[in-house]
Each structure stands twice: as structure tokens, then as C-alpha cells.
């Protein structure tokens, strides 16, 4: 992909892009290749969304991560100018984002707050009242060290300490809270997590046909899994870790061997 300086985004989809590259919107590149136009064209309502690895700049879309450029068309018959662009990278360091669901490890208790390791540059805070049905008398049974918490970020920006909650806007847990003591926690790249969280993920569907298991996926690259036996749990862990480097055909062959046994 010849993106040394500037290029149309459509020409680079599926190709490797590098930090510093500038991508122009394919439907409306300027003659001078200096600006990104979002308002012109037949579909004025089309919106361009910048995903991970991209940032808007005066000249266009600035690439901030090394990886493969991806694009998803906007729904409703929008023009090619719309949709979402992002860079699919193998990044492992997590940067907290408001609304992200993550798995945190309780490291300490400070007053009415728990401190959680979420894999970012600093720890996140979690109030004991941020659980469904929690009151001053009815506190959640959180151990000071070692417990796993599945929650979402209520506050996440560079100027404030990340703050997590285990309830949604209606005050319901919606599957969030303390994760069971059993099971296995491991870490993968953020790119694999996004792939596993995609609707109708083929990897998850194929694994569910192999063994019944419980699975919790955190946007911070952490996965908690629990199957019926320790052996089955470890098999699922090994397959999920290997999926990052296997093709779909290689994965199907590996699963076929396991199901045959």
C-alpha cells in the first residue's frame, strides 16, 4: 500500500498502514490532496466514524497505529463516504474508554472505594454502591485482593482517574459484577478481543459445539473462561490463544481433531 504521504482510504483498505500516514475520504478527495470533505456529495447525512488507530486532522484521517486498515459501510444505503474506518492492530496495552466493558482485578480498598487493575496506565476506582441492590448495610462481598470484577467505565479520560460501575443506566447489573472464583483468566491482544465480540463470531460458535463453557470477554484484552472440567477449560484457553495466529481452516482442523477424541 503506497501510503508514504497521502492516499485515498479506499485504496488502503485491507493493507498495512503506518503511523503518520494521512488518508483521504475515497468519494471526495481534493485535487490538492490536502483536505477531507464530509459534507459534499449526494448523501449529506452520511457520517464517517473514526475507530481505533485513526484521528481526524486538518489534512484528513491521520493514522496513529501500525496495522491493517478496515472499513465497514454505513447502513441505510449511505454513500461510500460514510461508514467506519479503523486500524486492526495487535496492540496489547489498553487505554480506558468510557462505556467499555472490562475485567478488573481488585488490588486494594481505600475507604468506600475499591482499586482495580484494568491493564491501563493507572488503576480504576469502583464504589461499593456501584453494584445492583448495594446499600450501606447491604454491601457486595468483594475480597480486597484477587477478586475479578466485570464492569464498565463510567469515567475515562486522560485528566481523571478511571471510574468503573457494575450497573447500567437502569440500575441493573446486566451480567456485570463479581466473577466466580473458579475458571481461568488470561490475556490476549485487543484485536482478537474485538474479533471475538463481533456478532455471530465463528470462533465462539465453533467452540460452543465442542464443550459447554462460560465466557467473559473484556475490552481490555482479558478473557475469563470456565468449562465443566479443568482439562476442558485449558483446551478452550489454548484454542482461543492460538486463534490469533491460525486461519479459519486451521482452526476447523484443530477442533475436528479434538471432537474426534
TrEMBL record:
GO terms for biological process: CUT catabolic process; DNA metabolic process; exonucleolytic trimming to generate mature 3'-end of 5.8S rRNA from tricistronic rRNA transcript (SSU-rRNA, 5.8S rRNA, LSU-rRNA); nuclear polyadenylation-dependent rRNA catabolic process; poly(A)-dependent snoRNA 3'-end processing; regulation of gene expression; TRAMP-dependent tRNA surveillance pathway; U4 snRNA 3'-end processing. Keywords: Acetylation, Cytoplasm, Exosome, Isopeptide bond, Nucleus, RNA-binding, rRNA processing, Ubl conjugation. InterPro entries: Exosome_RNA_bind1/RRP40/RRP4, KH_dom_type_1, KH_dom_type_1_sf, NA-bd_OB-fold, RRP40_KH-I, RRP40_N, Rrp40_S1. One of its GO terms (molecular function) is RNA binding. Component of the RNA exosome core complex (Exo-9), composed of EXOSC1, EXOSC2, EXOSC3, EXOSC4, EXOSC5, EXOSC6, EXOSC7, EXOSC8 and EXOSC9; within the complex interacts with EXOSC5 and EXOSC9. The catalytically inactive RNA exosome core complex (Exo-9) associates with the catalytic subunit EXOSC10/RRP6. Exo-9 may associate with DIS3 to form the nucleolar exosome complex, or DIS3L to form the cytoplasmic exosome complex. Exo-9 is formed by a hexameric base ring consisting of the heterodimers EXOSC4-EXOSC9, EXOSC5-EXOSC8 and EXOSC6-EXOSC7, and a cap ring consisting of EXOSC1, EXOSC2 and EXOSC3. Belongs to the RRP40 family. This is Exosome complex component RRP40.
